[in-house]
Specification:
The chain contains four helices and six strands; from the N terminus they run H-H-H-E-E-H-E-E-E-E. It is α+β, with helices and mostly antiparallel strands. About 3% of the residues have low confidence.
C-alpha cells in the first residue's frame, strides 16, 4: 500500500471535533492569561514592608501634628487632620459629620476648662489605603489636673498620599456624674 505525503490512515476529524479543539485551546489561553493578569495585579497592589513602614511613619507624623493643633487650641488645625467625609463619635453626643462640623465641635471642645491634651497611640495597623489606630488620651486643666482621660479608635484613610481621620470614636474612663436623687415629699 502506497501512502501519499500529507495523508494518514488515522480517523478523520469532524468539523465538530475541530471546533471543540479550537474552543478548548481558547479557554485554556484565556484562563492562563486571566491567572497571569490577576497574579500581576496582586503583586502590584500587595503592600511591601517598606511601604507599610512609610505609612506607619506618615500616620505617626499626622498624630504629632494633631496633638500640636489640640495643644495650640486650633480648631481649624485639628479639623485639617480629618477627611471631608469624616464622622467623629464623641461620648453621649450625636455623631459629628464632616470636616466643617468637626471644626465647630472642636471650637467648643478646646474652650476652657480644657488646657492641653496628652495622647498615646498604642497601635496602628495599615492595610492598603486604610488603617486603624487605637490609644489613650488625657485632657488637662490649666492647673495640670485631669479633666478627662479615656481611649480612642480611629479609622484612617489615605487620600492622595495624605492620611486623614475617616472615623473617630472615643470614650471616657472617668466615672459619669450621677443625677441628684429626686426629692421626696411626705
Amino acid at each position: 500500500m502506497r501512502v501519499l505525503p500529507g495523508y494518514t490512515f488515522e480517523p478523520v476529524l469532524t468539523a465538530r471535533d475541530i471546533a471543540m479543539n479550537v474552543l478548548n485551546r481558547a479557554i485554556s489561553v484565556t484562563l492562563a492569561a486571566t491567572v497571569l493578569l490577576l497574579a500581576g495585579c496582586q503583586a502590584a497592589t500587595a503592600p511591601d514592608s517598606r511601604s507599610a513602614q512609610m505609612a506607619q511613619q506618615d500616620i505617626s507624623d499626622m498624630h504629632a501634628g494633631l496633638l500640636k493643633a489640640y495643644n495650640a487650641k486650633d480648631p481649624v488645625g485639628v479639623a485639617s487632620f480629618y477627611s471631608d467625609d469624616a464622622i467623629l463619635m464623641p461620648p453621649n453626643l450625636a455623631p459629628v459629620k464632616s470636616k466643617i462640623a468637626v471644626t465647630d465641635f472642636m471650637r467648643q471642645m478646646l474652650a476652657p476648662p480644657m488646657s492641653s491634651m496628652l495622647m498615646n497611640v498604642a497601635e496602628t495597623v495599615v492595610s492598603g489605603d486604610y488603617a486603624f489606630s487605637t490609644g489613650f488620651y488625657t485632657e488637662l486643666r490649666a492647673d495640670g489636673t485631669t479633666l478627662d482621660d479615656g481611649k480612642f479608635v480611629e479609622v484612617l484613610k489615605n487620600d492622595s498620599g495624605t492620611w486623614h481621620i475617616y472615623r473617630d470614636i472615643y470614650n471616657s474612663d472617668m466615672v459619669a456624674p450621677t443625677a441628684a436623687p429626686a426629692a421626696t415629699t411626705h
